[in-house]
Write a structure and sequence with these properties.
alpha+beta; nine-stranded mixed beta sheet; two-stranded antiparallel ribbon; 12% strand
Length: 633
């Protein structure tokens, strides 16, 4: 999320009055930038990750766990210590770390200080770099209240009791006892990072949509669940089960957005390759949701979802009722600002964009006039249907040498896969956004390298995974459901070659998509992991013998998750709650259950949990390469 801008924020009314001016200027900026970069090449492959952390206080004497709303101070402290990585952590880490605040005041984000590449050494050091970052953050957190409680970072997709009374510690109560927190009633301003831009974006999402921001989440129905009340006694009046029986309502907006992901961004060698990578990753977006599922609890209830995706999609939805419900396809916006991808961007895949989506006619016409191909012109014009969410009075008037108005439009189109224009020394990039944060750095490294190697295999072997956009959207709708990794099938292309006359799409389980199998009689799909292994067999770059064992360990985890041999984080969390001695089979996650769960998550992430749980056992059992080391928190 990041930096604060100096200036005077305009009101929503003034933003609306200046929207046409901003969009006209943004279009001029786009055309100027496109002319400059459309033919540039970027021969060095670069990629990086963005990991989101929640800051959690474990009060062992009280048996409670709380979120700590203090990311500004923590990031400032991290900025002061980030230059000391090598001396402090006894590791030759050539990448370092960058830190920034997230929208929610209990979250921070890290990325490598410089990008990874595609060499063997880059892959070997990803997990180490992730572990160093975790250790650095935990070291800063340990100084907040030393010796009294344990403040720790968790790469946790959702905090089970987020938004409930007493679940969060604001920055002005960091020294308060747990008993003093139970009556604290907090609002969006308390939850949100205190940056003007953050506050403006959150407020204007609501003002634009003419509704209260809330996500309706179906509650898991256990044998003693009572799901017919409008307000649940565990919640404050802003939350609880309302609107629709059997659903928990998560609000305000920031609580829906305050869920943690694991994202990666990779650079294409040129514009055409970046478009190709965008389109190849598009059908992977829903597949990676159940494969990384890690969020089965919201607002103190076990839910019927295993993922955060639908929650943030609902709370960031700023469409007006007319835009959501209109019968006029040229006006109706079928997808929210944060949501599934609007379409493929390569001309060769334009026929697969079989889901109608409106676009700005003037922007489209100007792009065509510039000589931009119709598919990418339509992609650009679709982004311009979204209004800016914040403006600074001092930056209202710009010329085409700036890019602020353009980035205001592009950077708030939060789709599952994003094509990003060059900035500075960064080329055309693709951002992959659907993966959930995992408890351990081993798991996170495994998923990151899995996706990166899949893109490398796609380019090297001429693979092609695209299928009709309507099928991808159907997959997105299924992906968040409880136990989707075992209980759902997903429409996926079974002949992933460019040299075919017809695209064949069949319904397959995640296991079959990842590990391969017979989709139907006579139709076999090779599987994503076997395709990556085939690509690795083509390489001759493992001189010291470390690379292949490490990558095999990562691929073994992905394969085992898909087959069900190793539980997803969501499955493990759900079973932990259901098997807890205090659980009353009523869907409710109490303070005691929450504390024990957070303590176990902390122990797993630090490598301290000595149990036979599938997550920790997978981490210990999968072979480690010779000479490799992992920095423990």
């Amino acid at each position: 999320m990041g930096k604060s801008e100096e200036g005077t924020l305009l009101s929503w009314k003034d933003i609306k009055n200046n929207t046409k001016h901003v969009k006209d200027t943004a279009l001029q900026q786009f055309i100027r930038l496109y002319r400059e970069v459309k033919d540039k090449t970027y021969p060095t492959f670069k990629w990086g990750d963005e990991i989101e952390y929640m800051m959690v206080r474990l009060d062992h004497s009280a048996g409670t766990a709380h979120l700590v709303l203090n990311n500004g101070q923590v990031v400032n402290d991290l900025a002061g210590s980030s230059s000391m990585n090598k001396n402090n952590y006894h590791c030759d880490d050539p990448y370092g770390a960058d830190w920034s605040v997230e929208m929610a005041a209990y979250m921070v984000e890290s990325s490598p200080g410089r990008p990874f590449g595609g060499d063997v050494l880059d892959y070997l050091l990803v997990e180490d770099n992730l572990s160093i970052r975790r250790k650095q953050l935990n070291q800063v957190l340990s100084r907040i209240r030393p010796g009294i409680t344990e403040d720790t970072c968790l790469t946790l997709a959702s905090f089970p009791r987020s938004g409930l009374l007493g679940a969060m510690i604001p920055s002005n109560h960091l020294d308060s006892d747990a008993s003093m927190l139970s009556e604290l009633s907090l609002g969006q301003d308390d939850y949100a990072t205190p940056l003007p831009r953050t506050r403006a974006v959150l407020e204007n999402l609501l003002r634009r949509s003419h509704r209260s921001a809330a996500a309706r989440i179906p509650v898991f129905r256990d044998e003693s669940s009572e799901l017919n009340n409008n307000i649940d006694p565990l919640t404050n009046p802003e939350g609880g089960i309302g609107f629709e029986p059997g659903h928990v309502i998560v609000g305000p907006c920031i609580l829906g957005g305050g869920v943690a992901s694991m994202q990666l961004t990779l650079q294409g060698s040129n514009f055409e390759e970046a478009k190709l990578l965008h389109d190849q990753l598009l059908p992977m977006a829903p597949i990676m949701i159940p494969l990384t599922a890690a969020a089965p609890i919201f607002h103190g209830f076990l839910s019927d979802w295993d993922s955060r995706w639908n929650v943030i999609e609902q709370t960031a939805d700023c469409r007006t009722p007319e835009e959501r419900n209109s019968d006029d396809e040229s006006f109706r916006i079928p997808k929210p600002r944060f949501g599934p991808v609007n379409g493929y961007v390569s001309s060769s895949n334009e026929a697969l964009n079989d889901v109608p989506f409106p676009h700005d006619d003037a922007v489209y016409a100007r792009c065509i006039q510039e000589g931009i191909d119709p598919c990418f012109a339509r992609h650009t014009a679709r982004q311009f249907i979204r209004d800016p969410l914040y403006l600074l009075k001092e930056r209202l008037h710009q010329d085409d040498t700036d890019t602020e108005h353009l980035q205001n439009i592009l950077s708030t189109n939060w789709q599952a896969v994003r094509l990003k224009m060059p900035e500075g020394d960064m080329g055309w990039r693709v951002e992959f956004r659907t993966m959930e944060a995992q408890l351990t750095d081993f798991e996170q490294a495994a998923y990151l390298i899995f996706v990166i190697l899949l893109t490398r295999a796609t380019l090297a072997m001429g693979l092609d995974f695209v299928s009709p956009l309507s099928k991808v959207d159907e997959n997105m709708a299924k992906a968040t459901k409880r136990d989707a990794i075992r209980g759902q099938t997903f429409a996926f292309r079974v002949n992933p070659s460019k040299d075919v006359d017809e695209i064949l799409v069949r319904d397959m389980t995640i296991d079959m998509i990842v590990n391969g199998g017979e989709a139907e009689e006579g139709v076999n799909f090779p599987g994503l992991v076997p395709l990556i292994r085939r690509y690795l067999d083509m390489l001759e770059n493992d001189e010291d013998g470390r690379f292949r064992p490490m990558v095999n360990g990562y691929l073994d985890l992905i394969s085992a998750r898909a087959s069900g041999k190793v539980k997803t984080t969501a499955q493990w969390i759900r079973e932990f709650v259901v098997n807890h001695p205090d659980y009353e089979h009523n869907s409710v996650v109490t303070d005691k259950i929450n504390y024990d769960l957070m303590k176990a998550c902390s122990d797993i992430s630090r490598g301290n949990l000595k149990t036979s749980s599938d997550i920790s056992q997978a981490h210990n059992d999968i072979p480690r390469p010779r000479g490799a080391h992992v920095i423990r928190s």
